[in-house]
Amino acid sequence: MSVKTLFSIKDLENLSGVKAHTIRIWEKRYHLLEPQRTDTNIRQYDVAGLKRLLNVSFLYHKGYKISKIANFKESEINGLIQEIGEQDIEHHALQSFKAAMFDFDHYLFSKTYQELLKHKSFTTIFYDVFIPLLSDIGTLWQTGTIDPAHERFISEIVKQEIIVNIHAIQQKRKERIVPKFALFLPYEEIHEIGLLFANYEILAAGFNTIYLGNNIPMESLKHLLKHYQSLIFLSYFTVKPDHESVWEYMARFNTEIGSQKNSAHQLWLMGSKIQQLKTKGLPKNVSIIYSLKELNQLLKTFES
Q1: What integer pLDDT is reported at residue 3 of this predicted model?
Q2: Is residue 255 pLDDT above 70, yes or no?
Q3: Which of 11, 109, 233, 262 could be 7's S-S partner, Cβ–Cβ 3.0 to 4.6 Å?
């Protein structure tokens, strides 16, 4: 599969937040961009042009007049961005992460992340930077502005950082803690970042987990019943299940897992598929958690 290296003016609008009409004016009046043209005279922009627009947009939204930006050399623009970025590190980090995505530049991503760590904890970075970044990228992927390869590149790096921080917590444990939570994604579900971070939050709160990961059929959960009489099963529904409703899944869980003899298993559900789900009428052992922050608050009041 070829990776997208040319972008339409609509793509640039989606990525930068600058309206296509404004981009055309900036081109014509200030020569800020030099698009290529197709045989039918359609504008196309390369990665360098896209990154330049992101930089220009950053300065513009910081109060610099476009006429002044147009007279800056590239080195001056980069210097200003670096200087401003030290005061507005979150916005600067989002721009840098997007730039890293287009060049598949792991070094730039890592450098930006390390700079963030000087000022913020990993948890704060995840909520304040990674969640907005992933949300933006998800929208860009759905609109065809970026390739799936771009989305996967960023998602995999974010997953790696979560795993590193999970490992750090686990290495500090000095005694065995009986697992209280079992985390899994339903069968055919592969969107793992939310579940991974939920695992991190649970471990950070002092609990222990059994992390099963993605694509887990209900049958596989039964094997845990041989070892534990009381577990909280936590799952993250993003696009699956799609062959049954969430209500049907809960009913099947209680038939096959939750109602086992001498057991007290709960099911906590998170993810985009449950956002419109009402709590009225839920089985007593099922809880709906609408966000990671809500999970964090719940864990603070939960007995270990």
Answers
A1: 63
A2: yes
A3: 11
